[in-house]
Specification:
By secondary structure, the chain is mainly α. About 75% of the residues lie in helices and about 0% in strands. It has 6 helices and no strands. Helix 2 packs across helix 3, helix 4 crosses helix 5 and helix 5 crosses helix 6. It starts with 11 loop residues before the first helix and ends with a helix.
Length: about 110
């Protein structure tokens, strides 16, 4: 159901700012970051610079390419979509594997030497 108190959707400016923040956190603000984003998304340099500046946000196929390569862009997208825990669920198998490896390492350290 829609709320009667107004629009709860994200503005384009908010979306662009959040994606820019995520991209800066992941890659920094260097020219190399721009080149990396161009390689990931096949977008032109001006488009990528607009994303990094927060002037525009990535759309469509560019967004898909970004979340394919950037965990922070995916996390930002899920938070903006109101699904912050979706990423946690997707990370659980990898977390379980890392924990199992850590437990095996602890067991090796605790094993009495012969």
């Amino acid at each position: 159901m829609f709320t009667k108190t107004g629009n709860s959707f994200l503005t384009q400016e908010q979306y662009a700012a959040e994606m820019a923040k995520a991209l800066h956190m992941e890659l920094g603000g260097t020219h190399q970051a721009t080149k990396t984003l161009m390689r990931w998304t096949k977008a032109n340099e001006r488009t990528v610079k607009n994303w990094m500046a927060g002037s525009n946000g990535p759309r469509g196929e560019h967004l898909v390419a970004l979340v394919k390569h950037s965990d922070l862009a995916l996390a930002a997208f899920l938070v903006m979509a109101g699904r912050p825990f979706a990423l946690t669920a997707a990370e659980l198998p990898l977390l379980r594997q890392k924990l199992q490896t850590a437990i095996e390492g602890i067991d090796l350290c605790l094993k009495p030497r012969e």
